[in-house]
């Protein structure tokens, strides 16, 4: 491996019910095949046998953590007392799966910090995702991307997520069987055909959701002292007053996002990175819908975050919770799946793809290797480059290390003055209306305004104009 290579790792907390169906194996194999140095898998249930799918991977590349509840409590109490205190301060106990995800991600980051430099665990960036997600790139290796992040002084980046759509009820391994994805709303154009395609999905749910689950991305962070996960979507960087320095390679630490999100409008931190992205496979199959909500049970109606407690607005997630705890859970969940999740109409699928609202990704299964188990310093199979098409339609050879790092604050008249009149008119109103939409999928009140302001802002940042293409 090149001495300039920048290594990255993945941490995931998981629990599979009734078998892994090859999902866990593919999750590990795929991420190793594209160049991740190490993966940490925290099994949330010591009786979960799906760990056996990956038991023969080398410990050099994969760490499997299976602990009883008492063992977990002991580790967390000794290693993360501050995090436990923070969670307790907002009324969140370790009974909530999100709290356990936060604690496990923190432990993995600390392990990476302590690892010897020649160890595969000594990663410089860490990605926190779930077992129904993949860190996807059309490139053969993620190493150039993380090398670019480091060169730009980027210490935290949020990637756009796209949501998988099942075409039938009987899905076993969603990673290999699901190829259709809704693109994140905040990445779509405001064309008439796109609006029509989005309306098709919003009309299927009583809460007018486009995405059925989260739409605010997942993140990677630079591994360093003082970092901790603030929720499952992002990390908190060390503060300057901690005395741990806010400079790296001569550049200030930067937090950036591939999404222009009106719920947290930060134009200074926008980067036009469309690849890599996160592929999310939520409830992709009737079995997985039942399994998810049987595992979650009667979960609280708020999202725990170390920033604040966020109430979950009316949405598919709460409807599924209600269905799963009803007297006829199987029947109720099946009704939800057939009416709001599955899309099997080939004509409609063609329209969705033609409008650019949906896309096909078909190369996941073909990129399996099951042979990437060498040392960190060996050249991974994924380093062999060949030109592919990325999800924005440009060749990777053209775009892989030419990401746009946009700095609107450098314009003479300042960020606010450079906003279009339309954007300025909507900004305050939008910020208020979307605060209720921080749960799973934007609600109807928030979605149109969020989409509009995001499109205007992206247009301005990328082209320097405020003309929204129609």
Automatic annotation (TrEMBL):
This is Glycosyltransferase family 92 protein. Transmembrane segments: none annotated. GO terms for biological process: cellulose biosynthetic process; response to abscisic acid. Residues 369-395 are annotated as: Disordered. Residues 383-395 have a biased composition (Basic and acidic residues). Pfam families: Glyco_tranf_2_4 (PF13704). Coiled coil: none annotated. PANTHER family: GLYCOSYLTRANSFERASE-LIKE KOBITO 1. InterPro entries: KOBITO1-like.
């Amino acid at each position: 491996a090149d001495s300039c290579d920048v290594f990255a790792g993945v941490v995931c907390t998981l629990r599979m019910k009734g078998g892994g169906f090859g999902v866990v194996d593919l999750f590990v194999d795929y991420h190793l095949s594209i160049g991740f140095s190490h993966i940490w898998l925290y099994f949330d249930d010591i009786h979960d046998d799906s760990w056996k799918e990956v038991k023969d991977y080398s410990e050099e590349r994969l760490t499997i953590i299976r602990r009883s509840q008492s063992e977990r409590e002991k580790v967390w109490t000794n290693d993360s007392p501050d995090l436990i205190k923070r969670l307790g301060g907002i009324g969140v106990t370790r009974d909530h799966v999100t709290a356990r995800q936060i604690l496990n991600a923190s432990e993995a980051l600390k392990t990476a910090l302590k690892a010897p430099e020649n160890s595969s665990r000594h990663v410089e960036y860490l990605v926190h995702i779930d077992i129904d997600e993949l860190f996807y790139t059309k490139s053969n290796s993620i190493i150039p991307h993380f090398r670019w992040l480091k060169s730009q002084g980027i210490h935290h980046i949020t990637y756009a997520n796209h949501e998988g759509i099942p075409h039938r009820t009987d899905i076993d391994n969603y990673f290999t069987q699901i190829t259709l994805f809704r693109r994140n709303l905040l990445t779509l154009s405001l064309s008439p055909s796109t609006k029509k395609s989005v309306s098709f999905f919003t009309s299927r749910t009583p809460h007018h959701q486009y995405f059925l689950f989260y739409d605010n991305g997942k993140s990677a962070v630079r591994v360093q002292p003082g970092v901790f996960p603030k929720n499952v979507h992002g990390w908190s960087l060390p503060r300057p007053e901690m005395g741990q320095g806010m400079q790296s390679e001569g550049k200030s630490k930067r937090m950036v996002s591939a999404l222009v999100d009106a719920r947290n409008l930060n134009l200074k931190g926008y980067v036009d990175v469309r690849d890599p992205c996160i592929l999310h496979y939520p409830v992709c199959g009737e079995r997985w819908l039942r399994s998810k909500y049987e595992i979650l049970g009667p979960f609280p109606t708020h999202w725990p975050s170390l920033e604040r407690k966020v109430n979950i607005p009316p949405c598919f997630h709460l409807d599924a919770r209600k269905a799963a705890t009803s007297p006829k859970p199987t029947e109720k969940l099946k009704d939800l799946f057939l009416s709001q999740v599955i899309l099997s109409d080939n004509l409609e699928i063609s329209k969705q793809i033609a409008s650019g609202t949906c896309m096909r990704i078909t190369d996941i299964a073909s990129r399996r290797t099951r042979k990437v188990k060498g040392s960190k310093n060996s050249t991974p199979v994924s380093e062999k480059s060949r030109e592919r098409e990325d999800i924005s339609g440009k060749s990777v050879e053209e775009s892989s290390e030419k990401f746009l790092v946009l700095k609107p604050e450098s314009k003479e008249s300042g960020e606010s003055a450079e906003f279009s009149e339309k954007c300025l008119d909507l900004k305050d109103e939008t910020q208020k209306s979307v605060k209720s939409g921080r749960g799973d999928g934007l609600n109807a009140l928030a979605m149109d305004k969020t989409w509009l302001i995001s499109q205007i802002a992206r247009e301005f940042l990328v082209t320097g104009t405020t003309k929204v293409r129609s």
